[in-house]
């Protein structure tokens, strides 16, 4: 049970990783990221309904996520970054509201099952019951994060990404377009969200309300680990996922989300830059 | 003056008269319900505007405070048998206490982190309300009887008047608060938290107080909400409601009582507007036309279609077209909210009331109220009598950043009544040294003594309170405040009225005195004619002088000027020298960081030269100029090796 929780936590970590991608380049995060996960999951479900085979659906869903990420960047983020204000918080909340309403009206308010070709028969590993589906989630999460990290380190475009994260102005002076890099980061972030949606939906089912449930946990993971902590999110995600299943076992499922929220507030109070984050120096 | 009173108070009285008489003329329980809700939401949004508008932070916890206040009021009636007023007081206090508790950790944060902290708080509150079933009945819901009000049992109409009365009281209290030092502080700490601290106005405590006050209004609204509906469910206070509240404040207009009220009207009326398809289409078409007109005007002016101009048109366009494609506008409620909110946030950042207020002020040419006569300078900036003893002593001061020794083992003393120059090449540690003295950075080690007593370390606010005032190399003015208000904010020893009395309106005399004192300081630096000009609209030179006037308002023992002549034109430099001389003649001790050697030589009694974080020379300006070490530091020439001059 704790192990399943921890594996779920990996999905939270994946969404939190999406926050890190955009925070690194633009110091902004998408408050409507949960809706991105949910919309991509619904879209993928529709692809399956239209008869698209599972393994073709996955890239389709990911592309849809990328497109949504780019819309968020254009409509919500770029505008307020140009004006150097924090309007993107409000605008991305608005985007989330729109996404929620659209999903509610197109796909309905009820939770729907999400098919998967991978077996859900539990297996025994050293006394721990675990399903191949859950293992596939873990593999999927780590593979996506690994690939993106590899992309950032090994390709020229990825190095531009790192440069903008380190110092936006300096990168611009070196001829790297910060705008394009931020677009890239939002595209990747959208893709990561779609991946999270496809991975978690077979376990949790798909419904409009999955957005708010997931985003709170992903926020908790991102903040506790630190928004610039790299792989710290994986550890915190596993920890939080395990903690959640323990809480819902001992206190009842209504309290399931409480530890994440408390951790989030505590982390902000004690270490605003996260457990794995770095502090910055004020300058005048 | 009269015109101003007439318009502003007149509008308030007119609105009040209409609100108070509707229930007498119209006998319609549905309309009465809407009016009651309007008064409640009015209070709620005025409270939310404190954080969203004045503190400039996205606050996602306000719906939770409404809920907590509602449950507190309901439970104090059903469990403790409280009357109406006592129950409302309880809900306010719950808002105040929980708001304060949340504010302590949350307000150390900015922007997204603050939004997240408040979001978690509100999610947590709903969980607790849902799961603490023994107290709140959980998801089943809690039924409440409306208690007696001073022994009377209120019917729907009586309860409406009570809500209206509360709204009026909140409105007046808020107006008093905003026109006091508190309102200025809210505005200032959004512009520059660093300068707010450096002027001895605690950023943090004002934020916490503002947030707690706003939350207590949320609690009060919650109490009224509970007695209005007489049935509560935790689901009523979730994120969905929060987004709608944000919509109200932003749509109506941030930083405006009228904006909050207008936003409340929209929230109350919108569901009704949406249920009628025809009405919805008319409104969205009007919105589309307005956005299009604005975009065309903007396009003519800039001959370029920016996304900012086009986005509201697109959003409203989707709304109009979408209206024809869906059957039931009610079920698309959230999407409609989202599109409207998007159009307003992008197109009218000041909201509808902000836009209207600017337009009306110009249309009727309403002047700001007249200023009082300036106080005597002796009262504002008392003469000090220097005693030739050291005022400030630095002992082995060190500040390292990782491996960089920005200030390394610096010892110096500043004699009282003197202008002490601090010079050195770029990167020599001058700015770090004054940043450590003024408390922006804590020293790595070493001691700073002011009049023999250790200065607090690492807190701008505490150092400012002990009598050290500073200006900033990169200007840190409060851009949205006028020159006068910039100085008024920093005034020391004027604001004595405690917060409850400020809310009741007892701070007016104090305000007049503050204006008079601030004017005297503006005269000292020659800005008396620009008192009402926003700091951001002053010329660069005037902004530098305003920073000095603002620092003087602290009545400091020690004034630190961080490169006051940087970037000034020649006539302004002369004016600056005059100002500094005049201030020094009043007995003020000054540390002057400067690159202009002529300014330094004409003003400074003593000069300390830094290089690489070390003190390399000290003496009068003339002695310094001849010091070989100083010449080497500046020009990179060693006296004995002319060869290096060629390569340098």
Q: Topology of this structure?
A:
The complex is a heterodimer of chains A (284) and B (648).
Chain A: H1 2-26, H2 33-49, H3 54-82, H4 87-107, E1 123-125, E2 128-130, H5 132-154, H6 156-166, H7 168-173, H8 178-204, H9 210-225, H10 232-251, H11 258-270
Antiparallel strand pairs in A: 1-2
Helix pairs in contact in A: 1-5, 1-6, 1-8, 1-9, 1-10, 2-3, 2-4, 2-8, 2-9, 3-4, 3-8, 5-6, 5-8, 6-8, 9-10, 9-11
Chain B: H1 2-25, H2 29-54, H3 62-78, H4 84-106, H5 111-131, H6 133-136, E1 142-143, H7 156-178, H8 181-191, H9 193-198, H10 203-229, E2 231-232, H11 239-252, H12 257-275, H13 277-302, H14 307-325, H15 333-347, H16 351-364, H17 377-380, E3 390-401, E4 404-415, E5 419-423, H18 430-437, E6 445-450, E7 453-454, H19 460-465, E8 468-470, H20 483-490, H21 499-503, H22 508-525, H23 540-552, E9 558-562, H24 570-585, E10 589-593, H25 597-603, E11 606-611, E12 614-619, H26 621-626, H27 628-635, H28 643-647
Parallel strand pairs in B: 5-10, 5-11, 8-9, 9-10
Antiparallel strand pairs in B: 1-2, 3-4, 3-6, 6-7, 11-12
Structure commentary:
The complex is a heterodimer of chains A (284) and B (648). In chain A, α1 runs parallel beside α5, α2 packs parallel to α4 and α2 crosses α9 (210-225). Chain A has a two-stranded antiparallel ribbon. Chain A is globular, with a radius of gyration of 19 Å. Chain A is 73% helix and 2% strand. Chain A has 284 residues and is mainly α. Chain B has helices spanning 2-25, 29-54, 62-78, 84-106, 111-131, 133-136, 156-178, 181-191, 193-198, 203-229, 239-252, 257-275, 277-302, 307-325, 333-347, 351-364, 377-380, 430-437, 460-465, 483-490, 499-503, 508-525, 540-552, 570-585, 597-603, 621-626, 628-635, 643-647, and strands at 142-143, 231-232, 390-401, 404-415, 419-423, 445-450, 453-454, 468-470, 558-562, 589-593, 606-611, 614-619. Chain B has a 6-stranded mixed beta sheet, sandwiched between helices. A 4-stranded antiparallel beta sheet of chain B has the order 4-3-6-7, with helices on one face. Chain B has a two-stranded antiparallel ribbon with strand order 1-2. In chain B, β3 (390-401) and β4 form a beta hairpin. Chain B starts with a helix and ends with a helix. At the A-B interface, α3, α4, α9 and α11 of A face α4, α5, α11, α14 and α15 of B.
């Amino acid at each position: 049970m704790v192990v399943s929780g921890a594996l779920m936590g990996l999905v939270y970590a994946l969404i939190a990783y999406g926050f890190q991608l955009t925070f690194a380049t633009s110091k902004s995060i998408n408050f409507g990221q949960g809706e991105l996960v949910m919309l991509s999951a619904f879209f993928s479900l529709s692809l399956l309904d239209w008869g698209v085979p599972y393994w073709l659906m996955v890239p389709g869903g990911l592309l849809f996520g990328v497109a949504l990420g780019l819309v968020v960047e254009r409509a919500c983020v770029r505008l307020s970054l140009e004006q150097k204000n924090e309007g993107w918080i409000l605008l991305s909340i608005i985007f989330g509201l729109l996404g929620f309403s659209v999903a509610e009206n197109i796909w309905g308010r009820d939770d729907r099952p999400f098919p998967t070709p991978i077996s859900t028969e539990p297996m025994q590993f050293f006394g721990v019951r675990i399903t191949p589906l859950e293992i596939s989630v873990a593999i999927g999460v780590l593979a996506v994060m690994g690939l993106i990290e590899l992309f950032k380190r090994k390709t020229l475009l990825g190095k531009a990404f790192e440069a903008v994260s380190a110092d936006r102005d300096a990168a611009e002076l070196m001829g790297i377009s910060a705008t394009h890099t931020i677009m890239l980061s939002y595209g990747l972030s959208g893709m990561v969200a779609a991946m999270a949606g496809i991975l978690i939906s077979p376990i949790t089912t798909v419904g409009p309300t999955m957005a708010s449930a997931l985003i709170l946990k992903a926020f908790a993971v991102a903040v506790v680990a630190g928004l610039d902590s790299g792989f710290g999110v994986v550890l915190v995600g596993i920890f939080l996922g395990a903690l959640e299943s323990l809480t819902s076992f001992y206190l009842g499922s209504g309290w399931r989300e409480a530890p994440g929220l408390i951790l989030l507030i505590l982390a902000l109070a004690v270490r605003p830059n996260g457990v794995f984050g770095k502090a910055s120096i004020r300058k005048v | 003056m009269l015109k101003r009173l007439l318009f502003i108070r007149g509008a308030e009285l007119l609105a009040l008269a209409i609100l108070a008489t509707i229930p007498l003329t119209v006998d319609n329980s549905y309309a009465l319900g809407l009016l009651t809700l309007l008064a409640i939401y009015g209070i709620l949004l005025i409270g939310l505007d404190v954080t969203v508008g004045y503190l400039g932070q996205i606050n996602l916890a306000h719906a939770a405070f409404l809920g907590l206040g509602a449950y507190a009021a309901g439970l104090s009636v059903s469990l403790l048998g409280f009357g109406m007023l006592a129950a409302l007081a309880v809900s306010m206090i719950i808002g105040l206490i929980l708001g304060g508790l949340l504010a302590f950790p949350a307000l150390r944060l900015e922007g997204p982190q603050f939004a997240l902290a408040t979001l978690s708080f509100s999610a947590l509150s709903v969980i607790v309300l849902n799961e603490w079933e023994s107290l709140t009945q959980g998801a089943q819901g809690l039924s409440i009887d409306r208690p007696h009000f001073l022994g009377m049992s209120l019917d729907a109409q009586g309860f409406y008047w009570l809500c209206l009365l509360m709204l009026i009281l909140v409105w007046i209290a808020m107006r008093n608060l905003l026109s006091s030092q508190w309102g200025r502080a809210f505005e200032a700490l959004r512009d520059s938290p660093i300068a707010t601290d450096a002027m001895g106005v605690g950023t943090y405590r004002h934020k916490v107080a503002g947030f707690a006050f706003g939350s207590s209004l949320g609690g009060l609204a919650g109490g009224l909400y509970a007695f209005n509906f007489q049935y509560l469910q935790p689901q009523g206070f979730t994120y969905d409601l929060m987004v709608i509240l944000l919509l109200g404040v932003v749509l109506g207009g941030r930083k405006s009582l009228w904006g909050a009220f207008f936003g409340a009207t929209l929230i109350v009326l919108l569901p009704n507007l949406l249920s009628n398809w025809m009405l919805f289409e008319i409104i969205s078409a009007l919105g589309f036309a307005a956005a299009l007109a604005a975009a065309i005007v903007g396009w003519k002016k800039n001959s370029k279609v920016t996304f900012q101009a086009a986005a509201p048109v697109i959003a409203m366009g989707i709304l109009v077209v979408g209206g024809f494609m869906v059957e039931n506008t009610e079920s698309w409620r959230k999407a409609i909210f989202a599109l409207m909110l998007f159009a307003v946030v992008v197109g009218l950042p000041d909201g509808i009331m902000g836009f209207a207020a600017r337009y009306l002020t110009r249309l009727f040419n309403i002047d700001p109220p007249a200023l009082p006569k300036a106080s005597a300078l002796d009262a504002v900036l008392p003469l000090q009598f220097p005693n030739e003893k050291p005022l400030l002593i630095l002992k082995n001061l060190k500040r390292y950043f990782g491996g960089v020794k920005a200030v390394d083992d610096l010892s110096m003393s500043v004699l009282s009544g003197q202008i002490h120059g601090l010079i050195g090449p770029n990167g020599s540690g001058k700015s770090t040294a004054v940043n450590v003295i003024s408390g922006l950075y804590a020293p790595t080690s070493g001691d700073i003594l002011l009049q023999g007593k250790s200065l607090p370390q690492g807190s701008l606010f505490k150092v400012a309170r002990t009598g050290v005032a500073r200006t900033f190399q990169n200007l840190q003015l409060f851009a949205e405040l006028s020159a006068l208000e910039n100085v008024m904010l920093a005034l020391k020893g004027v604001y004595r009225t405690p917060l409850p009395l400020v809310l009741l309106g007892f701070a007016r005399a104090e305000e007049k005195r503050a204006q008079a004192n601030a004017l005297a300081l503006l005269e000292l630096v020659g800005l008396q004619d620009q008192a009402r000009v926003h700091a951001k609209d002053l010329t660069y030179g005037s902004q530098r002088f305003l920073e000095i006037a603002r620092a003087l308002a602290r009545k400091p023992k020690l004034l630190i000027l961080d490169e006051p002549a940087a970037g000034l034109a020649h006539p302004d430099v002369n004016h600056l020298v005059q100002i500094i001389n005049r201030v020094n003649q009043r007995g003020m001790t000054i540390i002057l960081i400067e690159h202009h050697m002529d300014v330094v030589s004409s003003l400074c009694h003593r000069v300390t030269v830094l290089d690489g974080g070390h003190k390399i020379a000290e003496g009068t300006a003339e002695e310094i100029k001849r010091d070989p070490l100083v010449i080497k530091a500046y020009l990179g020439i060693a006296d004995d090796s002319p060869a290096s001059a060629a390569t340098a």
